[in-house]
Amino acid sequence: MDIRVDETGSRGSIQSFYAPQDAPRRPVIDRAEGIWMWDTDGRRYLDATSGPVTTNIGHGNPRVIAAMEAQARKVCFASRALFENAPNIRLAQKVSALAGPGFEHVFVTSGGSEATEAAIKLARQYAVAKGETGRWKVLGRDPGYHGATLGAAAVTGDPVTDAVFGPVMAPMPRVPTPFTYRVPPNHDAESHARACADALDAAIRGAGPDTVLAFIMEPVGGLATGALVAPDSYYSAVREICTRHGVLLVFDEVMSGAGRTGTFLAADHWPDARPDLVTLAKGIAAGYTPLGMVLAPAEMVDAVVASGGFLHGHTYSANPLSCAVGEAVLDEVIDRDLMGNAARMGAVLREKLTALMEASPVVGDVRGIGLLQAVEIVADKATKAAFPPEANAIARLVALGMERGLLLYSRSTAGGRYGEWLMVTPPLTITPEEMDEMIRRLSDTIDAFAAETMA
Ligand SMILES: Cc1ncc(COP(=O)(O)O)c(C=O)c1O
Predict the structure, then answer these.
(1) Residue 257: CB within 6 Å of ligand 1?
(2) Which pTM value belongs to this model?
(3) Exposure of 260 in the CB half-sphere (CA atoms within 13 A)
(4) So where are the chain's domains?
(5) Which of 129, 150, 317, 440 is at a distance of 20 to 30 A from 279, taking alpha carbons?
């Protein structure tokens, strides 16, 4: 059988498929280094997305590549049923030390959706181990995002996902997300957040407190909410409500964790609202290998182990190669103080995005923490009206960015019902010069868009 292909990767009619199918053809990636990426036509792009919110330490990191090679030469794979492996043990110890008290155990997965699944199953088994077998409902926020697999989709607040996949999963109850820019009439951000926390309390009561297992939320929003940060009071209110009802609080830190907000966990910004479980992925291996994890307290894992062990696992869970890469990424983050850089450069980014918002007729809001920020795009700053769906504003901005050698990541949640935004999430390694260049290209892109649409 002849399976020879064109080695340049040029495309014929047979291709692997990506979503969305009708998207314009994308450039073919050739190579990448630091914050820069090159396509096979030699065009260079500055990655303002960390592609997306993943390549936290930039591309081509020599230390990670060396660790990957060294581990590959030793052993790439060994079944967890037969062996433990040192990179997994070391990675778990380092993550646990960084996460602090309450996260003594780490269950390693191959990505964020798997981490959501594992967190839900661990929480459920803990309840069963304690004799609370009636607890199974996992409340989520609408909108929110926790992954693409069916269990993760069941707790993801997305009406399109529910409409299409609802029959083959069990969509869970949702509570409103405390947006701060668009708030209902007669509310400010603070009172709306209070109402959203009250809605959680009411939802737990309505579902029957003894049937509710957990509440899952992104402490700093990702794509679904455009880096949303709720008022501080929301986090302590949610913690108090969950504790009062015996409901586990799960922070999905797939996007916000691993140093992106300037602290190892975004949860560290709200010390009086510590979650019971945390999920990580994306930045934890920074795109060098698929990796995710669930951080859990000793008490929970001990109870599950005593009841017969965690009924969960994937072939690639905790494989030595991914764990060695994760460990090298973490060492790089610590040794180069990349969390400190995220905090410092995050403050610079906020200043520059705020100036951009003040100067631009189409930027209505800037939000986020550290290097997890977003700008909201509006047709009218006075009324906060979004562009009509047929304007395809966000897709157009991404295309204009691409023309200017700038990679952007965007979303219009639920067809624009909650607004539209561009994530601004460069690698944590970003330098002041790279920041200036990124902002120059971003302003240029937004100006071009404004000129087009406001003409
Ligand atoms: C907050 C959040 N949770 C979970 C996921 C799912 O992670 P993955 O795509 O690695 O399965 C994502 C991915 O974007 C995410 O942003």
Answers:
(1) no
(2) 0.97
(3) 37
(4) 29-57+337-454, 64-335
(5) 129
